[in-house]
Amino acid sequence: MSDIMDEIHQNRRFMHSPIFAGPMSESDQSKGISPPPFGKKHSGKLIDLPSFENTVINGSFTGLLDIRRSIRNFTSGAITGEQLAFILWSTQGIQSLRGDTAVFRTVPSGGARHAFETYIAVKKVEGLESGLYHYLPTENIGEKKVCIEKYGNLPSLDDNVAEMLAGQNWTTRASVVMFFTCIPYRAEWRYREMAHRVMLIDLGHLGQNLMLSAAALDLGSCCMAAFDQKVCDKNLGIDGMDEYTVYAAAIGPYKETLK
After folding, report:
1. Is 187 inside a domain boundary?
2. How many angstroms separate the CA atoms of 63 and 215, rounded?
């Protein structure tokens, strides 16, 4: 029991603001070390998703706040390429750069560092084969366009996704499941040991944009912190230290009667 309480107290201390707790160690930014890139380079064939600029957006902002809920009762229906593009752009689209030190996206981020990458397990999206994809926002800076790459094939999409999400089999009915990973050095370069608490706050910004955007498209969504770390990192082909899974979200049409 004491071990559990020690861990609880340690985690509570992690949530405390460290700003006035003492001087921060010298950052790589202050040392004049070049910053890491804002996004990973593509390794596969680029795929331009359809434009979402004419996509019908439903509801007022206050209306979206009223209907935003975690939805798990997905149908087996598909979403459109335009809908997928809109949600990707809404969560991590790049609007502009300030030199090589700050990137401005559709969500806030401490120090404008934006440490996250987006991978998409596609089950039913019109115009796309099922499989694993990677979002490439650096290919469309300042544009309302979305480019992805085919990242790989999970041997059994349903089984692999359910295993990645700790046995949450309801996720296999979703049209897509997004996995968000963290490349921590993007924030550590500026904030060193203070970066990690801020990156967790940034995930909340991302998740709210995703869910409001899904609601605006009359789609259901559910963000998840329950996942199998090792299985996710392995299936996404990342090392679990310099890049690791931190969040996931299922998106798709849902049964209106169970809303």
Report:
1. yes
2. 10
DSSP string, 186-230: HHHHHHGGGHHHHHHHHHHHHHHHHHHHHHHTT-EEEEE----HH
The pTM for the full model equals: 0.94
Burial zone of 40 (CB within 10 Å; 0-12 exposed, 13-18 middle, 19+ buried): middle
Mean pLDDT, residues 169-177: 97
Query: Is 141 inside a domain boundary?
Result: yes
Collapsing DSSP states into helix, strand and coil, what is residue 245?
strand
User: What is the number of other CB atoms lying within 10 angstroms of the CB of residue 163?
Assistant: 17
* Amino acid in position 77: G
Q: Give me the number of domains the chain comprises.
A: 1
Residue 247 lies in a domain: yes
CATH code: domain of residue 122: 3.40.109.10
How many Cα neighbours within 13 Å face the side chain of 158?
7
Share above pLDDT 70 across residues of the chain, in percent, rounded to a whole number:
98
β-partners of residue 250 are 177, 222
